[in-house]
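quick one before i forget lol
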Amino acid sequence: MKIKKVRKYSLLFVIGMVFLLVGVTSKAHAAEDEIPVIYSARTYNSRVVKNSNYQLWSKPPFQEGAKAVGKPVKLRNKLVQMDQVVVTKTGRYFKISRKSHVYGWLNSKALIKPKKYILPYTYTSQLYPLYAPNACEAASLKMALSVKGIACHTKLKTIIARMPRNANPNKGFDGNPYKESPNNVIWTIYPKPLTAYAKKYDKNAANITGASKAKLITEIKHGNAVVTAGSWHYQNGRPYHVLALVGYKRGKFLVADPYMKKSWSGKTFWVSTAQFMHVFSDKMRRRRAVVIR
């Protein structure tokens, strides 16, 4: 009788172990078969393509139908934006773009974090070929949009014409963009209506008035240009002006000033972050800023 019981319990033990092993094995296979999750990478800093020997993919390599679309030879040493990210068995892949052109998925090993960020902007002057001495907001907006490949073929005159007008700069542009403003008079448009207007071109535009130095640095590192209140070349004692923030390196911002004649040098210049914030933060400018994302 005891022998039968022992055999019975032994059999139950063996059966239990078999089910346990089957369960563990099934979970292991399930884990192996889990599809990697794709996340937004817009909170990642932009990176530079350093190794062009890696393959670009139309989709993450694990997805059905993923095709090799070439190597990023033309992007070598250029700053690209991180749009999406996924971690697979073969490594981390980023969906990369530049000026809103999506190039595909690239292994993170082909990318490096730069020490200097210079966004791919296209310079626009408010003084040539169109003479609009009070259109710094429109010209700076056009430069900021160009980083995303937006409105690159839209004339400055068109951007000026479509800008909302109002005697109150909190509602629209106050003044004549084609004339110099009278002494001690500010003709401008403030961030709230400028942001609403910018959204007609880029729905992700945002009013970031009050931005700290750290906030501005983060936006630049993420690949986003910023339209900022300042002064000509960010010098002290100059009248109210609007410029485009298009780059950053340790201790310095890269600024594009639209109030430049064709023959003048220094259309884009590096200014210390301390000097930038000194002008940007005064009572006249009040850290007014619009970011193009």
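fyi The chain has two domains: 39-114, 118-292.
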